[in-house]
């Protein structure tokens, strides 16, 4: 340490935290691979249809040709084969992925936002705790599928009218899944907040006069990031599967509208003759879930300064 | 500090009570209270350090926190400056916060692990000032200089520091708003001995530099003797004795203070071998069910019948010395009529030994 050192550091501004986060994230191999895989999948479903311009819902009107092109194995014309109606699987995978990834991400965001909000409120404000936690119990006790069915029955028509059949169904599914899957996150977050609230740095912030909202944003939320991340990554997988279950029951998207979950269910009938029809969407869903999981893992580590730089 | 003019009161505590309710039974009914602090009255003068000692569980930390209204008081008043902290509205209280700050016991827990040192020290500035980012950074650097932290550390996270350094960060944060009054809640209890001295000396230097007033809570009697001007000895939520430092350590009046101070080891082996320890029998009664009469009557070696009946009030028995005990009678040369009424000792209480 020379005397010149303090002069030098005086000029150096504190680095932005996000720069540190990125440096740490980059050092997490799994997270990088996850990010790469997820981006590839996103490119595959978004840019793919522009390159591979076959119509995913096209059924050859000529019955003879249609029957001839049914259940084809992979070939140059149909790289992933065709389904039982002669539709191109590659095009269907791309189109279906758009919906599935969009549903998964949006439903996850809704459920995590709701869960975190309710969890933080319940944990931080003692007065709200009982009310909100009983509400959570109530939602946990509701049988999920019948509830979704009722929601779909009630709101499908008005939503379709307002946002068009696809937009309406998307909104309905996303909101329905989001509204029925926030409870775990809320409970975990509440528990963390309860423990955090007793830590001395929260008391220190109160002695400074930090108001509750900034207390939550500055001290509580950053410290409950880890469980939220875990809940979020698992939530995506859950949302994709729930969507397919809904579509399977005829309450999600229309039957000819491809989603990965839908393809999985369609293929399940032919799993013994044509296993690849289940493998493609299955692999796609697994890859999405896995990659998001690794991204979440890396983010969680990168956001924790104690792990960062190790 | 031996000038004749009486020091100005900065903090005036009157009949401070802090009860924590106990809920029990199926219906969680309010069945009792933990009387953590039960009727405390004392003043802290500008620029002095009031030491607050007592065994663990006697309510020291609760007093510190109640003084800054980190707890809602059960009753009593805390006047800091000229406003009653206990009755301020939340908004008014917030504007008052810069005047009073706190240094916490556990340097590990009192810093948010997700914030950089610069962000931690700047938090009070964010809340109470409208400085630009550059001005804030400059102020943070100044504070880091003041507490002896290298400016290059501004960008690091609390986990990268030792206990002593973390405590310095906590002190810098407390200093950020130029407070007048700082509650030091056992700031050295979690540090090892060599670092304790550093931190205490730092606190003393800062006191001189910024004219701070401390309430120094500790169970380390030697350290309190080093830093405090006056010392209050607490037992079970009440003050047993409040005296200037030297007379208290030389000649404690309250039986509990005697017992407590007899536990301080003497560095001189000759005197140490002759030191008589007063070992108290039994345990501290539960603060949820304190004994009738004097709180100390169950363990007092000099107990007399009246102790079991009447709670003794804190009374000035020697100039500047306040004792709550039936055995210690006021000297004749004390101002007549100091019988322990609040009004009386309020006027008589002085920061320095009069001798």
Keywords:
heterodimer, A: 310 residues, mainly alpha, MetI-like fold, 74% helix, globular, B: Rossmann fold, four-stranded antiparallel sheet, 11 helices, 12 strands, 30% helix
What features would you describe in this structure?
The complex is a heterodimer of chains A (310) and B (355). Chain A has helices spanning 4-11, 17-27, 29-46, 48-51, 63-68, 89-124, 126-141, 144-179, 183-197, 200-208, 212-220, 225-248, 260-268, 276-303. With 310 residues, chain A is mostly helical. Chain A has one domain (20-48, 86-303): MetI-like (MetI-like fold). In chain A, helix 6 (89-124) packs antiparallel against helix 7 (126-141) and helix 12 crosses helix 13 (260-268). Chain B is of the alpha/beta class and 355 residues long. In chain B, helix 3 packs parallel to helix 5 (163-175), helix 4 crosses helix 5 and helix 5 packs parallel to helix 6. The longest helix of chain B has 18 residues, at 193-210. Residues 334-355 of chain B have low confidence and may be disordered. Chain A binds chain B through residues 5-6, 9-10, 12-15, 17, 199-201, 203-211, 214, 218-219, 222-223, 303-306, 308, and chain B through 65, 68, 70, 93-95, 97-98, 100-102, 104-106, 109-116, 118-119, 123-124, 127-128, 137, 141, 150-152, 154-155, 157, 159, 170, 173, 177.
Radius of gyration of chain A, in angstroms, nearest whole number = 24 Å
Report the top-level CATH class of the largest domain in chain B.
Alpha Beta
Distance between the termini of chain B: 14 Å
- State the major sheet of chain A: none
Count of discrete structural domains of chain A:
1
Low-confidence parts of chain B = 334-355
Tally of contiguous helical segments of chain B: 11
For this structure, what is the CATH class of chain A? Mainly Alpha
CA-CA gap between termini of chain A: 24 Å
Helix-strand category of chain B: alpha/beta
- Greatest interface and its residue counts? A-B, 31 and 40 residues
Largest beta sheet of chain B: what is the strand line-up? 6-7-8-3-9-10-12-11
Envelope shape of chain A:
globular
CATH H level of chain A: which superfamily? MetI-like
The overall strand count of chain B is: 12
Rg of chain B, rounded, reads 21 Å
Total beta-strand segments of chain A: 0
């Amino acid at each position: 340490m020379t005397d010149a050192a303090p002069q030098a550091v005086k000029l150096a501004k504190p680095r932005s935290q996000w720069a540190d986060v990125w440096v740490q994230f980059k050092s997490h191999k799994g997270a990088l691979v996850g990010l790469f895989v997820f981006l590839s999948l996103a490119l595959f479903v978004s840019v793919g249809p522009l390159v591979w311009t076959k119509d995913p819902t096209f059924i050859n009107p000529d019955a003879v040709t249609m029957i001839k092109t049914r259940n084809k194995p992979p070939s140059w014309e149909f790289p992933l084969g065709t389904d039982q109606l002669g539709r191109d699987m590659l095009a269907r995978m791309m189109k279906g992925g758009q919906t599935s990834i969009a549903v998964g991400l949006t439903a996850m965001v809704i459920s995590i936002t709701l869960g975190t909000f309710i969890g933080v409120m319940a944990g931080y404000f003692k007065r709200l705790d009982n009310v909100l936690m009983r509400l959570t119990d109530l939602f946990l006790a509701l049988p999920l599928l019948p509830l979704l069915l009722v929601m779909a029955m009630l709101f499908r028509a008005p939503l379709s009218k307002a946002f068009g059949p696809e937009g309406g169904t998307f909104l309905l599914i996303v909101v329905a899944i989001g509204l029925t899957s926030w409870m775990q996150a809320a409970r975990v977050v509440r528990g963390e907040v309860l423990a955090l609230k007793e830590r001395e740095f929260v008391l220190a912030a109160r002695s400074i006069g930090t108001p509750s909202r900034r207390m939550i944003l500055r001290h509580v939320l950053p410290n409950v990031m880890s469980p939220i991340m875990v809940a979020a990554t698992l939530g995506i997988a859950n949302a994709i599967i729930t969507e397919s279950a809904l579509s399977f029951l005829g309450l999600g998207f229309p039957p000819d509208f491809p989603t990965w979950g839908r393809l999985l269910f369609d293929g399940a009938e032919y799993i013994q003759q044509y296993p690849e029809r289940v493998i493609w969407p299955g692999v796609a869903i697994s890859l999405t879930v896995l990659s998001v999981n690794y991204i979440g893992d890396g983010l969680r580590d990168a956001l924790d300064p104690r792990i960062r730089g190790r | 500090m031996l000038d004749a003019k009486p020091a100005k009161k900065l903090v005036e505590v009157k009949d401070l009570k802090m009860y924590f309710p106990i809920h029990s039974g199926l219906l969680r009914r309010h069945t009792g209270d933990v009387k953590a602090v039960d009727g405390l009255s004392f003043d802290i003068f500008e620029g002095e350090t009031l030491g607050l000692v007592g065994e663990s569980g006697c309510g020291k930390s609760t007093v510190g926190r109640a003084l800054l209204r980190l707890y809602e008081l059960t009753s009593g008043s805390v006047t800091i400056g000229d406003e009653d902290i206990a009755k301020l509205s939340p908004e008014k209280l917030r504007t008052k916060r810069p005047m009073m700050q706190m240094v916490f016991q556990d340097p590990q827990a009192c810093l948010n692990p997700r914030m950089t040192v610069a962000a931690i020290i700047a938090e009070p500035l964010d809340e109470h000032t409208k400085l630009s980012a550059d001005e804030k950074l400059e102020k943070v650097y100044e504070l880091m200089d003041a507490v002896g932290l290298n400016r290059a550390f501004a960008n690091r996270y609390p986990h990268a520091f030792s206990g002593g350094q973390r405590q310095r960060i906590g002190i810098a944060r407390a200093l950020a708003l130029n407070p007048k009054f700082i509650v030091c809640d056992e700031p050295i209890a979690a540090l090892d001995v060599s670092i304790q001295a550093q931190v205490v000396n730092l606190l003393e230097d800062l006191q001189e530099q910024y004219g701070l007033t401390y309430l120094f809570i500790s169970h380390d009697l030697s350290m309190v003797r080093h830093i405090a001007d006056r010392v209050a000895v607490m037992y079970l939520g009440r003050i047993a004795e409040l005296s200037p430092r030297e007379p208290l350590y030389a000649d404690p009046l309250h039986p509990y203070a005697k017992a407590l101070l007899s536990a301080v080891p003497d560095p001189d082996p000759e005197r140490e071998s002759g030191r008589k320890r007063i070992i108290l029998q039994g345990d501290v009664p539960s603060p949820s069910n304190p004994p009738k009469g004097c709180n100390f009557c169950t363990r007092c070696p000099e107990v007399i019948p009246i102790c079991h009946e009447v709670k003794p009030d804190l009374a000035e028995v020697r100039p500047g010395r306040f004792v709550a005990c039936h055995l210690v009678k006021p000297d004749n040369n004390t101002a007549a009529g100091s019988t322990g009424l609040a009004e009386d000792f309020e006027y008589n209480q002085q920061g320095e030994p009069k001798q």
